Fold this sequence. Notes:
- By secondary structure, the protein is mainly β.
- The chain is built from 1 helix and 12 strands.
- The protein has one helix at about 1-5; strands spanning about 15-20, 25-35, 35-45, 45-50, 55-60, 70-80, 80-85, 105-110, 120-135, 135-140, 140-145, 155-160.
- The strands form 2 sheets. Strands 1-8-5-3-2-11 form a 6-stranded antiparallel sheet, with no helix packed on it. Strands 4, 6, 7, 9, 10 and 12 form a 6-stranded mixed sheet that branches.
- The longest helix is centred in the N-terminal third of the chain and has 4 residues, at about 1-5.
- The radius of gyration is 17 Å and the shape is globular.
Amino acid sequence: xxxxxxxxxxxxxxxxxxxxxxxxxxxxxxxxxxxxxxxxxxxxxxxxxxxxxxxxxxxxxxxxxxxxxxxxxxxxxxxxxxxxxxxxxxxxxxxxxxxxxxxxxxxxxxxxxxxxxxxxxxxxxxxxxxxxxxxxxxxxxxxxxxxxxxxxxxxxxxxxx
Length: 161
């Protein structure tokens, strides 16, 4: 109905920055990043075809303001190699330095499942946040006993076949 369209929020961020905890998160998590951001879940397939592109979603709750504009890294490690899903959250539409405490962030993005040189195997999936560039980056502190020395936290695995 034309009348109802005028009441709908067509802001592209309206589905990605919400005030209520998202329902139906497939893999709930509870990871604290520097008392500023809580990773509350992830959705990703269990199996993908090598070289294909798949959808992934990370869910966050904003705890405190962040002064820096962090990027998300996602590492898929397996068979002695890595492919990545590093990206600016929310498709570069709203940096983390604008996120507000109490908001829930639904960060949907695409990942390419390696290349033809990547082996068909199970990959452990790690994530975190960073600023900087290659050779000169800083990762946000992960306050989680499962975090590694680089402040990466394990969030599951995916089989590439």
